[in-house]
Amino acid sequence: MLDKEGYRPNVGIILLNQRNEVFWGKRVKQHSWQFPQGGIKHGESPEQAMFRELYEEIGLKPEHVKIVARTREWLRYDVPDQWIRRDLRGNYRGQKQIWFLLRMVARDCDVCLRRSEKPEFDAWRWHAYWVPLDSVIEFKRDVYQQALAELSRFVFRGGWRQGHLLRLRPGEETIDKAENAAPE
Fold first, then answer.
1. Which CATH number covers residue 62?
2. What is the DSSP string of 84-139?
3. What pLDDT score was predicted for residue 90?
4. In a domain, 1, yes or no
5. Sign of torsion over alpha carbons 14, 162, 158, 173
């Protein structure tokens, strides 16, 4: 299902743990990492699609998370031609996404990457909030920047500007959690 501009409706999920680290999944049999995401089926709301994708990709149910926020508008990215399936070329441009910020209220052991017949991820880890910008595939980077920036005000005191200054370099693992933690 594409819109008139060639974008497929999609949801993205930024899942936080209690330390404000984000879930980062490794795509099956690839060396690429990303946030959970997936298409919105005909008749589904973005929230319904988000809960379906959350279960299919990482095995969490609605009671395992709390919705903190979502992006106000659709965020779009174009997929490079070499990544587009032949049967979609000419019509398909990329994805338009509503991003959800979720807080996990379950335990790490509740994550299960094998809930669906075709798993999306074969490994996962927690990362500092801004780290995914340094390792996500290039064509998704602007959308990740927009989603993380818009939703950071729900994670860090002072919002995006302070959060952006806290962005860690690859290899750095911690931030001053007492100063930068979201208010409870």
1. 3.90.79.10
2. S-GGGTTT--EEEEEEEEEEE-S-GGG--TTSSSS-SEEEEEEE-TTTHHHHS-GG
3. 67
4. no
5. positive
At a CB cut-off of 8 Å and minimum separation 6, what does 95 contact?
A: 7, 8, 9, 10, 37, 76, 77, 79, 143
The pTM score is: 0.83
For 134, the token pair is 């340094």
Whether 73 is in a domain gets the answer yes
H or E element at residue 180: helix 177-180
Full residue range of the structural domain in which residue 71 is found? 7-179
Pull the structure tokens for residue 180. Answer: 């930068």
Report if residue 80 sits inside a domain: yes
- In this prediction, residue 84 carries a pLDDT of 74
Residues with pLDDT less than 50, the chain: 160-184
Number of domains in the chain: 1
- Beta carbons within 10 angstroms of residue 18's beta carbon: 10
- Is 184 inside any structural domain? no
Cβ neighbours around 38 below 10 Å, total:
19
